[in-house]
Specification:
Radius of gyration: 33 Å
Family: Belongs to the THUMPD1 family.
Strand content: 15-25%
CATH architecture of one domain: 2-Layer Sandwich
Helix content: 25-40%
CATH topology of one domain: THUMP fold
Subunit structure: Interacts with NAT10. Binds tRNA.
InterPro entries: THUMP_dom (IPR004114), THUMPD1-like (IPR040183)
Oligomer: single chain
Function: Functions as a tRNA-binding adapter to mediate NAT10-dependent tRNA acetylation modifying cytidine to N4-acetylcytidine (ac4C).
Structural class: alpha+beta
Strand order of the largest sheet: 5-9-8-6-7
Protein name: THUMP domain-containing protein 1
CATH class of one domain: Alpha Beta
CATH superfamily of one domain: THUMP superfamily
Distance between the termini: 136 Å
């Protein structure tokens, strides 16, 4: 009895590849000698936020970073394959020499792909992460913002904020505490000291608690030097904590409030008078008390008698003991003897109205 002959499986060239094969090939091309292609622990770089146009944001980031990077560190140097050492002609048949040459070519191609600035996947929408190599991100970004603050020259359209990231770790509280103990030493460990604040932002992460992170990091800063004090108005250092998925990005920056929270769109705006920026913001009156300006139109709507006065300085919810309220609906202020006749005019007019009615 003859056994059936098993035929080898025929390869059908007409069938399409599965989706998994395409994904694997795509990942292999991305990670082939070019370093990490997504945000992960152990990286340094620059975190950039944009407004709904990440591709344009990456282009602007490359242009801006290369401009100032060449200014600070010189032009970027590339490895030339022609300058790689090659074996002598007599050793072409030697297997060891051929192997060394192949390894050298692989290293050279890897160095060619590792650029000074390289965009990687951040893991969040409208956020771009630029991995840096051989530079200090905090010094470079501070130099960019300082120049834009002085010149008031706008150089970007879609980039909003540009935050340097000096280190990354896993976004778990124990990992962050262990990493921060050594990371924060250059700025806060005795004899170094300074005032500080902590800013926290979390994206695509739900297992971290903001209050716990700030409390733990503030405790670490205080343990490094007891003279480190919290200042939320104008701190010397700002500890930036940016969490994206399972990665925590840390940095310590200077002039955070001066450079408008490292916002490239706001830092180029000229400083205006506080009363023009926010009309409702209280300003200092002549006697040192907080007061606010109210237009005469609003006062005329409540009391037509006071329509002649275009502007008045009205104290903001301040009542001094023994102060007598005027009888008219619109408050009349006698601020250091300024226009004392207004109250008498209102009194006379009110009395005349009562006589007419009687």
């Amino acid at each position: 009895m003859s056994t059936p002959i098993q035929q080898p499986p025929q390869t059908s060239g007409g069938k399409r590849k599965g989706k998994a094969q395409y994904v694997q090939a795509k990942r292999a091309r991305r990670c082939d000698g070019g370093g990490p292609r997504q945000l992960e622990p152990g990286l340094q770089g620059i975190l950039i936020t944009c407004n709904m146009n990440e591709r344009k944001c990456v282009e602007e980031a490359y242009s801006l970073l290369n401009e100032y990077g060449d200014d600070m560190y010189g032009p970027e140097k590339f490895t030339d394959k022609d300058q790689q050492p090659s074996g002598s002609e007599g050793e072409d048949d030697d297997m060891e020499a051929a192997l060394k040459k192949e390894v050298g070519d692989i290293k050279a191609s890897t160095e060619m792909k590792l650029r000074r600035f390289q965009s990687v996947e951040s893991g969040a929408n409208n956020v771009v992460f630029i991995r840096t190599l051989g530079i200090e991100p905090e010094k470079l970004v501070h130099h960019i913002l300082q120049d834009m603050y002085k010149t008031k020259k706008k150089k970007t359209r879609v980039i909003l904020r540009m935050l340097p990231i000096s280190g990354t770790c896993k976004a778990f509280l124990e990992d962050m505490k262990k990493y921060a103990e050594t990371f924060l030493e250059p700025w806060f460990k005795a004899p170094n000291k300074g005032t500080f604040q902590i800013v926290y932002k979390s994206r695509n992460n739900s297992h971290m608690n903001r209050e716990e992170v700030i409390k733990e990091l503030a405790g670490i800063v205080g343990s490094l030097n007891s003279e480190n004090k919290v200042d939320l108005t104008n701190p010397q250092y700002t500890v930036v904590v940016e969490i994206i998925k399972a990665v925590c990005c840390l940095s310590v920056v200077k002039d955070y409030m001066l450079f408008r929270k490292y916002n490239l769109q706001e830092v180029v705006k000229s400083a205006k008078d506080p009363s023009q920026l926010n009309p409702k913001q209280p300003v200092q009156a002549g006697n040192g008390k907080e007061a606010k300006l109210e237009s005469g139109d609003k006062s005329s709507q409540h009391d037509p008698v006071e329509g002649k006065n275009n502007q008045q300085v009205v104290p903001e919810n301040i009542e001094e003991p023994g102060q007598i309220k005027p009888r008219s609906e619109t408050p009349v202020v006698n601020d250091g003897g300024a226009k004392p006749e207004l109250e008498s005019q209102v009194t006379e007019r009110s009395e005349s109205n009562e006589n007419d009615l009687s």
